Amino acid sequence: MSRAQIVRAWYITLKDIRTYYLKPPLISWGILLPPSLSLPCTFGPRATSAPLPLALSA
User: Is the overall model pTM greater than 0.90, yes or no?
Assistant: First the structure.
């Protein structure tokens, strides 16, 4: 590949990222939703109802 082709490919990649991947629905549904659904299933059976200790209590 020549340097000009690499530069063109880089600019197309940046355009695609801006167009498709930096939209609010993708960020919320594609990036935040899967971990927020899998974490409760992972830690749910071991979770307790004990209150969390507060570090700022006087």
Answer: no
